[in-house]
Design a protein that fits this description.
The complex is a heterodimer of chains A (about 140) and B (about 130).
Chain A lengths: L5 E4 L1 E4 L14 E7 L4 E8 L7 E2 L2 H5 L8 E7 L2 E14 L2 E10 L7 E2 L4 H4 L1 E5 L4 E5 L3
Parallel strand pairs in A: 4-9, 5-8
Antiparallel strand pairs in A: 2-11, 3-4, 3-7, 6-7, 7-8, 10-11
Chain B lengths: L9 E4 L4 H10 L3 H21 L15 H9 L1 H6 L3 E6 L2 E6 L2 H10 L6 E5 L11
Antiparallel strand pairs in B: 2-3, 2-4
Classes of the chains: A mainly beta (about 140), B alpha+beta (about 130).
Amino acid sequence: MSSPFSLLFDHQFRYRSLPGLDPSSLFPALQVSLIGPSGADDLLAIVDTGATYSLFDGRRAKAIGLNLMTGKPIQLSGLSGTLSARLHSVTLEIVGSRLECEVAFSEWGIKRELLGRHDLFSRARFAFREGLSLGYFHPEP
Amino acid sequence: MTSTVSPPRFDFIVAKSVKDEIIEQIDRLDPPQQRRVLDFARDLNGRAETLGSATHELRADTQSPRECEMRWLRDHSAALRELAGKWIVLEKDRLVASDASYETARGIATDSGIARPFIIYIPETTDEAFMGL
């Protein structure tokens, strides 16, 4: 691609403060609908470009119609240690767009939920203007 | 798989000289084609006024369908500290449920007719920087 070039985005969102964290710190967090075979939860997740998988609390699995422990087991490594999780296919609804994604559900409680790269980042694109606390989302690669 | 069909709204101009290139391209068109470009540019300007554009002053954030709940979270930081360790369900500007048990909080919401609850966990407030997992 030669210069000049442009990247197009349908949606702009403002960074938010998050419960439990310093209110003066803002994060690129989005309201997400987590849709399973027989139910759905709405929640708030941080867009985390360093996370391989989107990660949700495993207690949500049953409520949306998934059997947590039948998912493919996976160990997720982070700065604070390793977390056991299970992979399941769900639909993520983000600002009106539905994306089929394989995501991880934790086997025990977690403090925060994440939107990570696997599947999601190959089906949608994100951009950030950290200096303006603005994020961008477009539901295409 | 995507369902969005609306036209792109935000355009990052990565380098300069776009204007020059536009003028150069328009000069090569015949008058009827130039008229179509003019109409297109006017249409884009009209959209920018109502939708906002990253190349203009940014003002048109996409509204979350849970904007009321987002506002509640922003405006109730003191209450949230007291709810630490609990799952909460918000519906519009109303706290529907709070409980240490996810199942209990969600059950209260569904029993009250909320099929898709906005339910989140409120962690203890910390000064630590967020570093993912």
